[in-house]
Specification:
InterPro entries: DUF1468. The chain has 153 residues and is an all-alpha fold. It is built from 4 helices and no strands.
Length: 153
């Protein structure tokens, strides 16, 4: 296993994430928390866990690189993903979280699928599932209300 610059950066990010997790456990709340509240350290810990997992993945897959970063189809997918995300943000303002996510999730999957065949039922179930899971996490776990949309207020 060769230690190149990307693996060194990955190791740094792993240590950084672990450090943030430790420091986040030291955060004191300015007010008394209800038993159902996750507290002020939840988001930094969750984000740091995501950082550590991604850095581990990057470290482990670093030696398995393609010669080219992206070909023309890859760049087209990147541009299309930015377009879909931009439309998703605009749609969320007017249509709210649920409708815009039900439309954007399959669009993102279709943009990124490359040559793989995706069954429409699987795509629909994925869209409904990811929309529901994210809604439940935001509404009930971290208690952040999601946009309803200007058209539905």
């Amino acid at each position: 296993m060769k230690l190149n610059k990307n693996r060194i950066v990955s190791l740094f990010l792993i240590l950084f994430g672990i450090g943030i997790i430790y420091l986040s456990t030291q955060i004191k709340s300015l007010f008394s928390l209800s038993p159902r509240d996750v507290g002020p350290s939840f988001f930094p810990i969750a984000a740091s866990i995501g950082l550590v997992v991604c850095a581990i993945g990057k470290f482990l897959t670093e030696g398995k690189k393609n010669e080219h970063f992206l070909d023309s189809d890859g760049w087209l997918r990147v541009i299309m993903m930015f377009v879909v995300l931009g439309l998703y943000l605009v749609a969320m303002i007017y249509l709210g979280y649920i409708i815009s996510t039900l439309a954007a999730a399959p669009a993102m999957v279709l943009v990124m699928r490359e040559e793989r065949k995706i069954h429409p039922i699987s795509l629909g179930l994925f869209s409904v599932g990811i929309t529901a899971v994210l809604f439940l996490v935001f509404q009930y776990v971290i208690q952040v209300s999601l946009p309803v949309g200007i058209l539905f207020k």
